[in-house]
Amino acid sequence: MLDAIEKWRSKQKPIPNVSDAIRHLLELGLKVKTTTRPVSKPGRRLRAQELATKAIEKIIDPSAPPEERTQRRRRLTKGPPEFREARVDQPKAKGK
Asked: What is the pLDDT of residues 77-95, one digit of tens each?
């Protein structure tokens, strides 16, 4: 990290001392706007979906009709409707 600071510092005119360079870089970093959603890798998301589906299949009643099992699986993966707005990992519904 110090090498990166030194490299940045050497490109500035006039060259700031190390503490001023760190202070300036910190100010720049605090100004950057970040998203509230966590960044995830697509492969990890797919793997999590597979694992969730397998776990749900084990707890759903096998004697239930297929459409009811699908409905239960969807409710377990999406969560109860009253909590969906609070989830940060799902896009918000348009028009709300």
From this structure: 777 777 766 766 666 666 5
| CB contact at 8 A, 72 and 57 | no
d(CA 4, CA 18): 11
Instruction: For 8, list phi and psi in degrees, rounded to 5.
Output: -65, -45
- 8 to 3, 5, 44: CA distances (angstroms): 9, 5, 34
pTM, 2 dp: 0.38
Nearest CA-CA partner of 73 in 89, 52, 44: 52
- Alpha carbon distances (Å) from 18 to 15, 23, 56: 9, 9, 55
